[in-house]
Amino acid sequence: MMCKVLIFGCISVAMLMTTAYGASLSSAKRKPLQTLIKDLEILENIKNIHLELYTPTETQECTQQTLQCYLGEVVTLKKETEDDTEIKEEFVTAIQNIDKNLKSLTGLNHTGSECKVCEANNKKKFPDFLHELTNFVRYLQK
């Protein structure tokens, strides 16, 4: 009987730790994160994007909501840059890849019940948005 209680206790602790800190990522989920970092680094060289985009602040508590918000804003960025002749093709391709890889990550973690909708976040200029998105992707890699 004591063994059953001990085993049950260990399983409960493991489940709580997984819920609190997230399950480790499979290699299928790690690859898009690595690719995202590379594409985000390419975008650091864009100088002529003058958009303000909603930038989530509750990244750790609301991972799924944050991911959805960034995805929506990347779609906006993609629409704004696809027909802009001043934007290099390399940047347009990087934005398309970021969009694709963020979509592949949806469903990664749960959304907290107290999470804000995307439009409740402050808008930030593109360089600040890019910096925050890069930090969020690095957070997901851990």
From TrEMBL:
UniProt keyword annotation of Disulfide bond present: yes
A biological-process GO annotation: immune response
SUPFAM superfamilies referenced in this protein's UniProt entry, alphabetically: 4-helical cytokines (SSF47266)
Keyword Secreted: yes
Any one GO molecular function term: cytokine receptor binding
A GO-annotated cellular component: extracellular space
Signal peptide: 1-22
Protein localization: Secreted
Pfam families: IL15 (PF02372)
Keywords: Cytokine, Disulfide bond, Secreted, Signal
Family designation: Belongs to the IL-15/IL-21 family.
Protein name: Interleukin
Source organism phylogeny: Eukaryota, Metazoa, Chordata, Craniata, Vertebrata
Gene that produces this protein: IL2
